[in-house]
Every structure is written in structure tokens, then in C-alpha cells.
Here is the input.
Amino acid sequence: MLSENIERIRDLIKANDTNELKSILDQLHPADIAELCDELEQEEAQYIYMLLEDETAADVIVELDDEARKEILETTPSETIAKRLDYMDTDDAVELMRDLDENKQEEILSHIEDIEQAGDIVDLLKYDEDTAGGLMGTEMVVVNENLSMPECLKEMRAQAEEMDEIYYVYVIDDEERLRGVFPLKKMITSPSVSKVKHVMKKDPISVKVDTPIDEVAQIIEKYDLVAVPVVDSIGRLVGRITVDDVMDEVREQAEREYQLASGISTDVETDDNIVRQTTARLPWLLIGMLGGICNSMILGNFDSVFLAHKEMALYIPLIGGTGGNVGTQSSALVVQGLANNSLDAKHMFKQIAKESVVALVNAVIISMLVYIYNFVRWGATATVTYSVSISLFAVVMFASIFGTLVPMILERLKIDPAIATGPFITITNDIIGMLIYMGITVMLS
Amino acid sequence: MLSENIERIRDLIKANDTNELKSILDQLHPADIAELCDELEQEEAQYIYMLLEDETAADVIVELDDEARKEILETTPSETIAKRLDYMDTDDAVELMRDLDENKQEEILSHIEDIEQAGDIVDLLKYDEDTAGGLMGTEMVVVNENLSMPECLKEMRAQAEEMDEIYYVYVIDDEERLRGVFPLKKMITSPSVSKVKHVMKKDPISVKVDTPIDEVAQIIEKYDLVAVPVVDSIGRLVGRITVDDVMDEVREQAEREYQLASGISTDVETDDNIVRQTTARLPWLLIGMLGGICNSMILGNFDSVFLAHKEMALYIPLIGGTGGNVGTQSSALVVQGLANNSLDAKHMFKQIAKESVVALVNAVIISMLVYIYNFVRWGATATVTYSVSISLFAVVMFASIFGTLVPMILERLKIDPAIATGPFITITNDIIGMLIYMGITVMLS
Here is the structure.
């Protein structure tokens, strides 16, 4: 949204011109109104929110930032929230309810008029947030496999009335078990004499209620689905997950890897709370601090090296930095490869062999260049000239193999390899780098 | 796919048991066959590929890894490729064609029997790969706004026959300009007496052929669409982009940020080519090397400091590492916030203020802890005891503000802020950190 438009809306709020505001809001898509509310100050957003019809308000609140949503929910009466939940898909309603405490949840549930909707929400709240059950909604068109196509069409028409959009029709047997699916396309291209079970695609791809969300995302991505049906432990159809919810998951997963690699333990991008911001970052900084102190102890044991060759100290940042950079590169490639399934932890040795060759090329180039620089600066006979280059070579090789090995081993141990990247790899490489540097210098002295 | 199954398939290939293999492949989804081919050795994958029907082969090749696809395309005759392109959606066909050189492209095009398909592919190849035009396909159901609903249904039926799936029907006027859209749902719920233009949703969300892909992804994500229509400069409907292609884009974009932050300039995850692997990594390593040499020069100018307090050298890794860690955290949060629109470059000072408070808390905690350690180790009067802690405090504050500022300024200058994270921020913070450390020590001595 253009900033001029936001200024205009701000002015209208100040002037209390509700008619003009309402006519502007009428023109906007709920997602745009949500974007507007995210940009405005809290009181202004509240003002806009109060002007909206229940149905639009429901669509807007689903699209708001976590922070803005929380602020609005806190000041909205439970009765109003209940009315708006009625207009939401159950998956969106549940996502919103999860942010509230139990008392508020119960208060809102008691105000929901549609008992079926309230029941669905209560049921869905029981599932673990990180599983298919926690992400699914119950809005879907479901028909029995024994219906004829005209009966099916009639049934669909009745069910579709209440829904925003439908893309698939799910087919169940008399025991409510998922038997098939057909894309809406079939509705208009199939001969009307057939029975549903003869037209449907049998054994559709589905997920279980306890399938982890990242697997659901992989399935939807792999099979290019628009929605995936969710079944319980005995195969009964209990819900569906749509691609838009999964897309958020794909983005969050990729962002999470990046955050972990950057030493941030939880998603605090939009969080204004200083305590949460600090607790997300301090742990890695403290581990980095311990690494630094550890390094100071190691270096303290090599007093004699620095006394004999005081110029050795100048190359500490170069050795440490190079190890960190190389290790970060190797581990990032492995973590991403494992996450998007282009790499398999079974192929560990193949990957290490590949990384070793790349490392060898980089190690030779970097050591040679630094050798030339030091040759000019200190002369060919100075210990530092060859000790720094030999150390760099060893550090690049070590950091590269270590950065590949650690995430692959973690994956095999079923530990999220993303936690190994960034700070952990950097700090370990820094310490090992110092040990290599001091060791080689002592050997050469 | 389970490794036992892969072993079984390997054995069948060795035994040349094509009948059994074909019956296994018949049971598999094309995406699963692609996954299988990615796992197998090149010759084995080739063997499997040759057993497939043209239509399945087309679906499989679309789903293959870049590497595996390239290998298979190189050994498949142009005539066979042409036959398979005929079964693909034009967007998939174009994506595949882009990997081939011009001669091969022309050879394949000359073999495509469906002239319309060939023409569409030629037209689509002209668009820039990173725009909506380069990602769109031409398969869609399009009806004129003046049709009656029964006419429309008939038209849809005819067009849908040739398509895998349809989710929206696009409505155009006599000049082929996009006028509206209706979800398939309307097909079954709308009264048959209406004209298309009275049932459709007017002014649908659309993108232009030259809209950058990341904007297309944002639009599809924001409005929760399953597909978005693409129009040319005068509003004529020329194609559509589906959510599955955009999901790949969302993942790639998030992965790209992470790679840049890790000092990898192009996507080389699955690339076995050593030259490409090296050129993707060496630039940042060389910049890191220059940074390290730069640091050695800076430290070389403070000989007197190290002579007076030789224990100062031991804290070089701690100071450099902490600056790097803090800077990486701050810049990663800003880069992600800017990429997913939760942060706006206009709010630079608000973000810096927020980061400064978090930095202050972290700086105080880290400096205090290190002070206590050094107090015990060197005593309260040693220069190193307070110089290291004061430097750490300054470095954390600087690195945090610098890491926030740089990506925000780049965003304002319309330069991708992701290039600022990782190596650049780490190296700069390392150098500035040394300057701060030396400067403060000189002042305190």
C-alpha cells in the first residue's frame, strides 16, 4: 500500500470521517486491509477494525501479523470474537484460538452460536500444533461413494453454499473412510450416468492426523496438490489442509534454518519484547564467549611461540575467520540439501569426497596468495611466511570436512542438523583453527 | 522411497526383468518415479526412463532434479523429447527447454506435432526467466463474458478435456482483455439462466508479464490464491501461474538468503561440478582473506601495545568472534523481515532503537561475565581486565547497529539486502572490532 494512501487514511481517522473510511475499506481486499492495519498505530488499527462488517473483520484478522492480531484480540469482547470465528474456516479459527489463554478460549466458545462449528474448534484444538491435525480445517465437500453423479452434484451444491472455495470433492464409504477424490474438473466433464465410485480417483494421497507439518508440506510440494485430505488412525476422513497454509510452513521452515545458522533460536523478527529478543540471541553469544575465552587459554599456553615470533599474533583473525567462513559454507549446503531432500544422509562419504575436492582447490588458492603476501612482507625464510600458509591449508581442509560431517551425523541421529550450523560450526572451527596454527608453528620453530 | 525397494529395483534392472519393472512403475506416482531416478545411478535411471509411456515420462522428467534431468535429456533423441513435451503443460515444457542450447531447442521444436503447442513454447521462451511471463503456462479455461451459463459450461467442458486440472475459469471480453474470474464452485452453484458476466467476480487479482517472480509469489501468498492470471501491457489475458510453481520460488528465495548469508553466491547444492562449486564459494573466501590480511596490518601497527601487555593478543579471537556473531544475528533478522514484508525500510530508526536496547542488554551481560573471568585470572588492576570488557561492550553495540543499518540502507538503494549479510557483515565487524580493541587499549594504557 502506498504511503500517501496511508496518510490519507490517518487523516480520515483523525477527522472521524467514518463514511468515507467505510467506502474506502469496501474497495479493499481483506488482505490489503490487514496490511494497512499492520502499518497503522495500534489505536488507528483498532478504529479501522471496528468499522468492518463481521465477515470482512474475520477475513482481516486471519491475515494480520501475530503482534497486531494479539493487540486487537485483547481489546475485542469475547462475544464479538465469537461472532467473527463463525465466519472463519475452522483451521483459521483454531490458529487464532491457540494464541489465547484457556479462560478466554472457553468464554469465546460459549458465545459461538453454531454448535457444530464450536465442536469442530474444540476437537481441532486437541491436536498437536505441529501435526496435520493441528493445521487442518473441517470445511470440505464430502460425498458417499455410492451416490450417482446427479445425486452427488446436488449434494455438492448444498455443501458448497457454505464454503468460500472448493477444489476437490472427497469420497467416503459408509464407514466414513476416505476412498477417493475427484478434482472439480470431473464434475463438468463426467457423464451423468456414472456412480461416484466409478468416476473418482481411487487411493488418493492423504496424510494422517499425526503426520508432522514439515512432511505434510513435502507431500503437497512433491505431488503439486492444492489440498490434501487428513485421515485418522483407522482411515476415516477428518479434515483437509490447504496449500496456502502449507506455503507459510515452507517459508517458515526455510527461514528457521537461516535463523539457526545466524544464531537466533526462535522467530523474533516482529517481536518488540526485549526479554524474548534477548533470550533468542544470548545463548549463542554466550557459547561464542566461552569459545573466545577457550581460545585465550589455548593461546596463553603458547607464550614461547609469541615471544620467539611476535608477528604470529597478527594472523590470528585471518586463521580464525577463514575456518569460520569455510565451515559455514559447507554446513549450509548440507543443511539445505537435507531439508529439501536433494541430499541423503546415507551418502555421507560421497558428499565428504566432493567437499574435500572443492576444499582442496580453495585451500591451495588461499594459502598460495597469503604465502605471496607474506613472502613480500616478511621474506622467504621467516617462520610466519610458511607457518601461516600451511595452517590456512590445514584449517580450510578441516573446516570443510567438519562442516559437512557434523550436520550429516546429526541427521542420522535424528537431531535437527540446522542447530549445528552457524555459531556452533564457527566457534568450533575457530578453536580447532587456533590449535592447528599453534601446533604447526611449534613444529616448524 | 525405502532403500529395500530401491535395492529390489536395482536387482530387477540387472536381471533385465522389464515386465516386473513395468508393473511396479505402473503403481507409482510420477513424482515417486522421479524420486527413484534421482536415487539411482545414471544408467539405471536411464533404463527406467526408457520403460515409461510417453505421458508418464513427461510427468517424471518435470519432477526430476536439475542434474538428473540434464543427464537424461542429453541422451534422449530430440524426437522423443518433442513427443514428451506435447504431454507437458507449456510452463513445464519451457522450463525444460531453457536448460538446452539453441540448436537442440530448434531441433526439438521442429519435431513437435501440435503447432499451437510449439508456437506457445516459442512465445514463452522470449520472456525473461525471472518474470511472470517466464513462469506462466498457457493452459487455462477461458470464456467470453457474454456467454450464457449453459454455453459457458459447454465451452468449459470442451476446453477442460485437454487439461489435467482446472481451478478457475477466466473471463475475457471481445478484445481478449481479462474481465473477471470465477472459482469452479460457481459452476455448480450458479443458476443456469445467468450470463457469465453477471456471475463472475469482477476485477480479479492479476499480474503483468513483466512482474518479477518474487512479487508474483508475494501476491499469491498474500491473497491465498491457487493460480493467478497474467496479462500483457494492454490487459489481454496471456497465461496463468499456478501455486506449485510459486511454492518452489518461495523456497528458493528463502534458501537463497540463507546461502548468501553463508557466503555462497549461487545455488550449488546438487551440483557435482568442481569449477562451479569453487566459483560459488571462493569470492567470499578471498574477501575474508583480504579482511584477515587487513587485520594483520592493523594489529602490526600496535606493536607497542603487545610489547607492553602481551596477554592482549589472547583476546583477539574473542573480540572478533563476538562482533561477528552479534552482527550476523541483527542482519539476519532485518534481511528476513524485509524479505517477508514484516519489516519496512522506512522504519529504520525504530528498528535501530529496538536493536540498540537488545544490544545493550547483551553487551552488559557479556562484558560483565568476561570481566569476572579476567578479574580472577589477571587481577583487577591489569589493563587487560577492563580493556577487554570495555572493547566487548563497544563491539557488541557497534556490530548490532551496523548489522541493522547496512541491509536497511541497501534496501532503500534497491540493492538486495541479502548480499550484505554473512561474510560482509562478519568481516567488517571483525576489522572494526580490532580497531576498537586496539584504540581502547591505547587510550587506557
